[in-house]
Amino acid sequence: MTSPVSELVDLLAVERLEDNVFRGQSRDIGTKYVFGGQVLGQALSAAQNTMDSAKDPRAAHSLHAYFLRAGDIEAPILYMVDRTRDGGSFSVRRVTAIQHGQPILFLAASFQHEESGSEHQLSMPEVPQPEDVEHDHTVPPEVLAKLPTKVQRWLSRQGPFEFRHVYPRDELKPPKRPPYQQVWFRLSGKVGDEPELHRALLTYASDFHLLGTATFPHGISYYQPNVQMASLDHALWFHRPFRVDDWLLYSIDSPSAQHARGLARGMIYDRHGRLVASTAQEGMIRVLGEDAGRKPQVG
How far apart are CA 239 and CA 213, in angstroms? Predict the structure, then answer.
């Protein structure tokens, strides 16, 4: 039987149709539409595949994306890559993800020659090591059976990543709490050493838990049937080398929520305290029905 890790690696290895045209498939992980991290990871893979790593090695250092439409899990996704610029030190690629003849995502990625220079970073938060944090608890079957179908599929999946929340929250009965969290995560199996693969995998994983942090002060969660959430954009910066099959700490905060949108930021550290990546995302957060007109306050 194929493991979830090998399935994800195959999923991110988009198929080349032409020099600048690639095709990706989708995997149902319990979300109603294609998981945003999948489209991000595949788009970055397509962009990386247009770089000549043998003659002119350049590594992705940032990406910026807009989600335009929900993706259809049952249909393939075409990735059209525009080789926007190849300068002396930097290259830029623009990627359009297309389904049913319409764009569902725009992504721009920048690549750079390896260079040395001044360095500094913010320190990693003081948190327990992953071995000292409990595994995320599974939902009892009798509770799972009472939940909406999409939530059942999401909670019962055997995913390729292991997550351990330093300060866990009951997502089914969420309390109000300040908008920050720390989550240890790693790929649940070992993969090869190619940096491009690890960047694509981290791009995929960076979409987990990020926007949800903006719901913390309001006592709501994605699992509730009257809550609608969708990512609007996503930014990711790669700072230092890393491996996603080693433990990484995702330290996330949400500085603001307003006008049915929430903003979240994240810093990703390896277990030695090196800041390896940073993220930012804004998303739609709507509460439907009688609660829609209320304005929750930070607890």
Answer: 23
Reply yes or no on whether 206 is catalytic. no
Structure tokens at 13: 């290895």
Tokens 């993220």 belong to residue: 279
**Residue 42: other Cβ atoms inside 10 A:** 29
Residue 186 contacts residue 247 (beta carbons within 8 Å):
yes
Active site residue 281: yes
Q: Is 245 a catalytic residue?
A: no
If phi > 0 it is left, if psi is from -120 to 50 it is alpha, else beta; for residue 48 that is alpha
41 touches 194 (CB < 8 A): no
φ, ψ (nearest 5 deg) of residue 163: -120, 140
Which residue, among 251, 254, 255, 245, has the nearest Cα to 275 in the 3D structure?
A: 251
Angle 195-205/36-48 helices, nearest 10 degrees? 160
From 38, 91, 221, 281, the catalytic residue? 281
Which of 254, 250, 253 is closest to 269 using CA atoms?
250
Choose, from 42, 207, 224, 251, the residue flagged as catalytic.
207
pLDDT by 10s per residue, the chain, length 299? 468 999 999 999 999 999 999 999 998 877 788 999 999 999 999 999 999 877 889 999 999 999 999 999 999 999 999 999 999 999 999 999 999 999 999 999 999 999 999 999 999 999 999 999 988 766 667 666 666 666 666 565 668 999 999 999 988 889 999 999 999 999 999 999 999 999 999 999 999 999 999 999 999 998 888 899 999 999 999 999 999 999 999 999 999 999 999 999 999 999 999 999 999 999 999 999 744 444 443 33
Give the distance, in angstroms, between the CA of residue 35 and the centroid of all CA atoms in the same chain. Answer: 9
